[in-house]
Amino acid sequence: MGVLVIGADKVQQIKSTLFELGATKVIHFDCRKKNFYKRKIPSNIDMVVFITDYLSHNKMEVFKKEAQKRKIPTVYSKHSKNDLKSKIEKFSKILK
Length: 96
What we know:
This protein is an alpha/beta fold. Helix content is 35%, strand content 20%. Strand 3 (47-51), helix 2 (57-69) and strand 4 (74-77) form a beta-alpha-beta unit.
């Protein structure tokens, strides 16, 4: 399963957590580049994870709408391994 992580700068811990939970591919958009709003969710993504500690509402809204149109599940988490695990457990059927 492919997961897109949006927000935060350092996501190594988040990536390792997602791999532990069954993700096969993790892509990260850090939201700092000028062309951020032009980016699209890649076609091989099955879930979008928003790291809310480091993400403005405007930037989140762009990808939230695209995910809703494509019916991709979204998770909103703090930059914390435990918070992410608890939120993703809701989607455990998708991960396995």
